[in-house]
Amino acid sequence: xxxxxxxxxxxxxxxxxxxxxxxxxxxxxxxxxxxxxxxxxxxxxxxxxxxxxxxxxxxxxxxxxxxxxxxxxxxxxxxxxxxxxxxxxxxxxxxxxxxxxxxxxxxxxxxxxxxxxxxxxxxxxxxxxxxxxxxxxxxxxxxxxxxxxxxxxxxxxxxxxxxxxxxxxxxxxxxxxxxxxxxxxxxxxxxxxxxxxxxxxxxxxxxxxxxxxxxxxxxxxxxxxxxxxxxxxxx
Amino acid sequence: xxxxxxxxxxxxxxxxxxxxxxxxxxxxxxxxxxxxxxxxxxxxxxxxxxxxxxxxxxxxxxxxxxxxxxxxxxxxxxxxxxxxxxxxxxxxxxxxxxxxxxxxxxxxxxxxxxxxxxxxxxxxxxxxxxxxxxxxxxxxxxxxxxxxxxxxxxxxxxxxxxxxxxxxxxxxxxxxxxxxxxxxxxxxxxxxxxxxxxxxxxxxxxxxxxxxxxxxxxxxxxxxxxxxx
Lengths: 235, 229
Ligand SMILES: Nc1ncnc2c1ncn2[C@@H]1O[C@H](COP(=O)(O)OP(=O)(O)O)[C@@H](O)[C@H]1O
Ligand SMILES: [Mg+2]
Prior knowledge:
The structure holds 2 protein chains of 2 kinds.
Chain A: E1 2-12, E2 15-25, E3 30-34, H1 41-48, E4 56-62, H2 67-72, E5 74-77, H3 88-97, H4 103-116, H5 132-144, E6 150-154, H6 162-179, E7 182-186, H7 190-196, E8 199-204, E9 207-212, H8 214-218, H9 224-231
Parallel strand pairs in A: 3-7, 3-8, 5-6, 6-7
Antiparallel strand pairs in A: 1-2, 1-4, 8-9
Helix pairs in contact in A: 3-4, 3-5, 4-5, 5-6
Chain B: H1 2-17, H2 20-53, H3 59-70, H4 74-85, H5 100-136, H6 141-151, H7 153-169, H8 172-178, H9 188-197, H10 201-228
Helix pairs in contact in B: 1-10, 2-5, 2-7, 3-5, 4-5, 4-8, 5-6, 5-7, 5-8, 7-10, 9-10
The structure holds adenosine-5'-diphosphate and magnesium ion.
């Protein structure tokens, strides 16, 4: 899915927190979005995922144009995912159930996902009894199970154990290589960006301060602001 | 004290002798309160969810009004409904005063704010998260509402139980609009009030015990249902 935004602003109580002249995400890009807290990363994802309306400007999604078909072909995983008060299995099945997919097909896909995330032993466990890492695996499995064209992730590996981080990254990478979705991932982890993404955008005070290839943004050509953030270890 | 023990004995006798008049009273009580609660739920659950989730001007005032209505004395609600249903009143031509229908209407008005209020409270906490989750998967409006009901089911169940408990145990509203007419609008609570006036204390206690047992049974059923899902 190709996404383009023009003249995007977002204000809360008359305070502008996001102001982006234009941006383009090409189909099949894997973007890392980094930047300090409060720079508008989450707000940008909420706008693109249509959870929030922009105060001004427009976002287009090619090749889709119908509102409902856009919403149906993308998803957003929150930093603290909300898991439904039911089993792990039912959580992963939910996106398929609302798409009226045949039950045997649902079963096959869900089981495949659970195995792939190594959580098949948790299938019948109640979601509210999971650890943070397990919960995030369920959330990612649930996001990938219906094969969305656009996947947005808001700090998916913040506050979870290193082993789970490695597994999530591995699953995300192999899903990306297999299905070639478009991915936008907010992260504070510079190394993670280098491991997964092919493009990176640095946000600062509601604007896209710099963007491009990893080599460009983080390399010697990068801006002094980015360099100082890296030096201070903020990202 | 003596009357209470006599009452327990009388309760057992009442229940075991299958007195048809007494069973008719119990049936009418259940019918009126359950119908009122079910009808109220149909309106109150979706409204409670919507009020709990959406941000709109006047939301705070609406919530305050609901909370106020939650503690409205049943007898006042009964009186208002009675006046509206009077022959000369705006809905007089339906001739509903002193019928079970009027009692259902009065209890419906009593219970709707209670169920709405409890659902609003439960929705405020998690409703937004649930709605956003549904949206991130492209759920339709109906699918989102279903998910909300499913996720908030425990809160919704307690709202229904609270509303039903209020309905079956109130006496003011059904007395004013129903009139405690024997064989027609007499329910358990109005029977108890009447028996007390007649000095039939142990029979009054006996009816009260039956009322309690029924409430206990229904609450247990709902509790069990909650646990299972
Ligand atoms: N619903 C909201 N109401 C008011 N202010 C908000 C809201 N959401 C975000 N903000 C503000 O917008 C700014 C950007 O927030 P956010 O997009 O969450 O930043 P980031 O994800 O980069 O940390 C912050 O100053 C935040 O306080
Ligand atoms: Mg954020």
